[in-house]
Amino acid sequence: MKGRRIRIAIILTILSLLGTLISCTQKPTSGLQTELLPVEGNPFVSFRILLRIGSAHDPIGKEGLCYLTMAMLANGGSNTLSFKEIQNKFYPMAATVNFQVDKEMSVFTGTIHVDNLENYYALFKDMLLNPGFREEDFIRLKTNQLNFLEKTLVNNMDEQFGKEILNLMLYEDHPYGHHEAGTVESVRKLTLEDIRNFYQTHFVQGNIVIGLAGGYPSDFPQQVITDFSQLPAGQTPKLNLPQPRSPQGLEIMIAEKNTPATAISMGFPLQLNRADDDFFALWIAQAHFGEHRQHLSWLFQKIREERGQNYGDYAYIEHFVQGRDKFPEPNHCRQQQYFSIWIRPLANTNRHFVLRQALRELKILIEEGIPRERFELAREYLLNYTKLYAQTLGERLGWQMDSHYYGYEDFLGEAQKRLPKITHEEVNQAIRKYLNSHNVYIAIITDEAARLKEALVANTPSPITYANPNMPPEILAEDLIIQNFPLDTQPEKIWIAPATAFFQTTGLPREN
Amino acid sequence: MKVRQPLVPLVLSLLVIFHFSLQASQVFPYNYQIETLENGLKVVSIPLKNPDIISYYTIVRSGSRNEIEPGKSGFAHFFEHMMFKGTKNMPREAYDNFLTKLGAGTNGYTTDDYTCYFVVFAGREHLEEVVRVEADRFINLYFDEEMLKTEAPVIEGEYYSSVSNPNRRLYELLRHTAYEKHSYKHTTLGYLEDIKNMPNQFAYSQLYKKRFYAPDNTILLVVGDFDHDELMTYVRKYYSPWPKSGYKLVTPTEPPQKKQKRAHYEWPTKTLPRLAIAFHGPAYSDTQIDKAALDLLAEVYFSRRSSLFQRLVIDQQICLSLSASFPDRRDPYLLIFNAVLKDEKDLPEVEKAIFEELTKAKNELVPTDLLRDIKSNLKYSFLRSMETTDGVAGTLAFYINLTTDPGTVNQLFDLYDKITPENIQEMAKKYFRTENSTVATLTGGKGK
């Protein structure tokens, strides 16, 4: 399936000759692509206008520009209507335009009842094709973006904060290596002129995929194509990404703040993505080792269920954003992926122990592979659970788009064919080929960072205590091993910085 | 241009068989059947033709509202965790493996009024197994004291997972300050000191189960691809042995508030300042106009299209967000106004603006065209929530918890249709009195 990216040029009907409709000639005039999913009789229509542009396309020094541009389109006025006027018109329809920005793609989404399709689309189109770029919208949205970086991300959402620090470590000096919202320094410098230029340069036909799903009239897609064909021709070349730097040993970045709980994320670049044949085998391994918010996760069983350490512990073989319920949100496709482990916040007193435990479990996974019965279980799970992934119109359309990004006709359908054929040995081979437990980036948010660093460097034993005085002896015996499990840490590879130092400028605050 | 077929043919769009008409009085468009077993277990079934997916919801009408004894805050939520410990017939690991093989989307959640467990799965051939296993879990749940002691710290971990979220802390503070007697005083997660004491609550856990985890306090809601008669055959077979409880909960009556209360939380690090203003309001009702009229009022004066939102968020830009939240609860609950500000110095101005807006609501009549737009918004929003089988089940579970009757949805929307501008004005005068309010603020410190 690899390389079977569907690229279909849009055939436009050209209406010409003296301004009258005397002939129709179909002619490829644009690079617009479409993804259509008609569902006759469905009372809703979902839009996904996807751009193959993301934060990795931010110019150096203007990090956060893509995000602010998308925000200006989705949450700003058009040339004809102010944002307030748009809100008022959307309101009776219970309508919105939402957006998301990832490293290499961004998407505008909206779902509307067919009763309101015409009115909604008129506004939606106007917002995207005829943006107002008003100063007042710019100030409002830029301030929001700055507040998110300066206050919310660093102070109010430690789980996400940890994941974002890991991202900085994974992709230092790499186009992926900044938060989608940019940095405080770069966003402060952004101007309305920057937004206009980014829009003009990147809102071109070759970058856009028009996605429609639901009970739209048969001639509606053509109307949308015609409208979007007013955008200039052109295409931004696909990013030629450098290889991200692999960690050399355990590289640990500690963000220090006053907190009773420690958040940990760790990982390393992965040399595969969903397009690779090995993905399916490694996917089974991931389901076994750390399936997102499921009891199947081995880490969840060992850390939470057996020991009650925290709320959950998971692992991923690609960038994961939770969408509806606990399912992966579509349209976060990337050329380059990473492996990660997410340890949800736990008492500071147990941080060293759990860090050891997670790395030890990873080591065991690599050395011993998956037990056969767990392989069977994880595979059966994936075969059934993935049937729940794409239920709403928007999800189905998003998965269709992602399938084509990675070269599949239908990725979830492909999984149904491929997973039953994967062998136990293939999974264990994939684990050995792609995973390791020695070269890992580790992001930690905690208090008393120097004390943790000292303990890590000295490999100080890290026993824990339990509320249950009668813990099973096999767990206590394993605890003795875990609390002394050696981590090959080097003091020069453990950095401490105050939490407030992150996202101020590009890269990591390594001064300390 | 290329037209593609659905990715997963099994998952056809649920709503394809229903084309709504908003002129119809029945905003909930699906037929449902209700049966009650002799032991009091109520079953609501909504068979749907299209999807190959079944959403199996067990709604226990017990939430943090039921935590009426001191020191037991958060126990409904803790018990939800214990419900995943299995039975002697099917211990935890076997139960986990059953759901894993099924590839089910499964979890539980606890609210103020109810605790809900769901299993969403593909394949009607699995229905009997699911009914059997879930019935076994609810009838024969087994855990010992050691299992409880191991699970208890997980709740502390859950508390920690949100410890950096200032909204949580502000909400805790608001409820704690606004209520004197009623169990809505604490949040679902509970007070930290009670959470820390959970390892010592084994005896209470047994009492809690006996009181509330019983068929006469539980509703099964099943939505999706199944046959009703087949479902009922399984339900009767597996749930009939479940003994009734007969326990009658009496929640403390909250005394009328006689003067305004204020509270403040100093956040240890930098954060955006927050303001929450709450008024004691009515309980949910699909017959009395109070709550329905207030729902519409919230939209008139505090939605994104309201003049106050547009002034404070869009024009003056002193607020990052502004909203009203009037949740439906079984007992009288709070009418809450929230604002996230950009600068602490504007807190008094925003507070004043909210009170002024409420004064306006008392002194003017809402334009009828605006009311029409609001009713339209509510209906389309409701329809959007039911795009999947799980959406139907999840939405309906909430309403069923309130009255045990799925018909309450249509009754509520009928009530909305009847609300007049005069009704809204009357309710503004009745509830938005200064002495009935609680103001909570949170501002950021300068810590590391």
Could you explain how this protein is built, in words?
The complex is a heterodimer of chains A (512) and B (448). Chain A is built from 17 helices and 13 strands. Chain A is 39% helix and 17% strand. Chain A has helices at 65-75, 83-90, 117-129, 135-155, 158-170, 184-189, 192-202, 220-228, 278-290, 298-305, 351-368, 372-385, 393-405, 411-418, 424-434, 449-458, 473-483, and strands at 11-15, 24-28, 33-38, 44-51, 98-101, 106-113, 208-214, 250-256, 261-270, 313-316, 337-347, 440-446, 494-498. In chain A, the strands form three sheets. A six-stranded mixed beta sheet of chain A has the order 10-11-9-12-8-13. Chain A has a five-stranded mixed beta sheet with strand order 3-7-4-6-5, sandwiched between helices. Chain A has a two-stranded antiparallel sheet with strand order 1-2. With 512 residues, chain A is an alpha+beta fold. With 448 residues, chain B is of the alpha+beta class. Chain B has two domains: 27-239, 2-Layer Sandwich (Cytochrome Bc1 Complex, Chain A, domain 1); 261-444, Metalloenzyme, LuxS/M16 peptidase-like (Cytochrome Bc1 Complex, Chain A, domain 1, 2-Layer Sandwich), CATH 3.30.830. Helices cover 41% and strands 17% of the residues of chain B. In chain B, a hairpin with an 8-residue loop joins β9 and β10 (334-341). In chain B, α9 (289-302) packs across α15 (421-431). Mean pLDDT of chain B is 92; it is low at 1-24. The chains are: A alpha+beta (512), B alpha+beta (448). At the A-B interface, β3, α2, α4, α5 and β11 of A face α2, β5, α4, α10 and α12 of B.
